[in-house]
Amino acid sequence: MTKSRSNNVVSIKKAVKADTGSAREKIIDALVALITEQGFVAATNRRVAEWAEVSQSTVQYHFSTKARMFEAVLQRCHAEFLQLVDNDALLSGRLEARANLFVVLSWRHYQSALYLATIEILMATRSQREIVTLTQLTDHQAVEQRQRIREIFPECQLDDRALAEVLTSTHVFLTGLTVETILEPKLVNIGGYLRRCTRAMVVMLKTPV
Amino acid sequence: MTKSRSNNVVSIKKAVKADTGSAREKIIDALVALITEQGFVAATNRRVAEWAEVSQSTVQYHFSTKARMFEAVLQRCHAEFLQLVDNDALLSGRLEARANLFVVLSWRHYQSALYLATIEILMATRSQREIVTLTQLTDHQAVEQRQRIREIFPECQLDDRALAEVLTSTHVFLTGLTVETILEPKLVNIGGYLRRCTRAMVVMLKTPV
């Protein structure tokens, strides 16, 4: 009987933990959906709680400040990008083919509601942001991305700084293209811009600057 | 006496017209300043009127809807860009030097509060926007920009569509770099990214794709 009770305690704890985890994820989902449909303006604690179907105190429990909630979106955005480029197809074939697939997969990520919400958060909080925290976050992200890129392009001889610049250049171009497609939804020849981006990436991977 | 009165009427009309013009400009100034300091969230009609030191009905008189006010920011952004590249120094020297100056001047524009406010407006209104109006605006802008670029690079043999793609690629890269410097204010080697952008522009101007 003691054993059974103890088991129950364990399973209850487990269930609570799982629920806690999913509440946190639901809050992030709600925040992204809210920003996508109604803009950053709409992302009040009350509405996030409503959309996530949790109480406002649950939101407060998981995210002591709004800045923490926004950081969670940035972190998830980063995690999803790493997951997207964790693709065996990126590990074989010619350099050009791998670079092309890398750009195409990245572009898919940049078109997601999550990435658009991330840009909107960055723009909206640019004067109020706690810069140090976000910078630490991006330093860590930069290291992880560089490791992944070294796995994908093992022939690349660039040092860390030059490799980081290749990644940043590619990221910068795709971010700009994302903003441009919002201004100009009829933008023609997206494929052409992605090919330019791929070619530039190949040139940079081959030639240290 | 009649003459004098008529003169007065003219000068009063002129003064009112000037005031009207400046109220409109003051409202746009206020909107940009408000977005810069407090974010898009803060851009209510009431606060814009306060910051512009005009009445709310004056705001309403000049901008029947918020969308009109946002379009005015985009239009001013475009006009300032054209003014910035209306620079005699862009009309002489080697192609590489002209491209370099074009990128440097453009970058100055992209770093302005006006351009940052423009990106923030685009991101914040992406689901609610009256797309047709903005697209017409950008079609018109594209034509003006292409004319200016033909004056700067008369040796360029590209057709309109290819030339538009060169401009868009350059714009896309600089927009992305702008967003990146907001995420990463310590971003090193901005000069290096601008040189990459210039080199890509030179290659595109010389080689039809």
Automatic annotation (TrEMBL), chains A, B:
<dbReference type="InterPro" id="IPR001647">
    <property type="entry name" value="HTH_TetR"/>
</dbReference>
<dbReference type="Pfam" id="PF00440">
    <property type="entry name" value="TetR_N"/>
</dbReference>
<dbReference type="InterPro" id="IPR050109">
    <property type="entry name" value="HTH-type_TetR-like_transc_reg"/>
</dbReference>
<protein>
    <recommendedName>
        <fullName>HTH tetR-type domain-containing protein</fullName>
    </recommendedName>
</protein>
<feature type="domain" description="HTH tetR-type">
    <location>
        <begin position="21"/>
        <end position="81"/>
    </location>
</feature>
<feature type="DNA-binding region" description="H-T-H motif">
    <location>
        <begin position="44"/>
        <end position="63"/>
    </location>
</feature>
<dbReference type="GO" id="GO:0000976">
    <property type="term" value="F:transcription cis-regulatory region binding"/>
</dbReference>
<keyword id="KW-0805">Transcription regulation</keyword>
<dbReference type="GO" id="GO:0003700">
    <property type="term" value="F:DNA-binding transcription factor activity"/>
</dbReference>
<keyword id="KW-0238">DNA-binding</keyword>
<keyword id="KW-0804">Transcription</keyword>
<dbReference type="InterPro" id="IPR009057">
    <property type="entry name" value="Homeodomain-like_sf"/>
</dbReference>
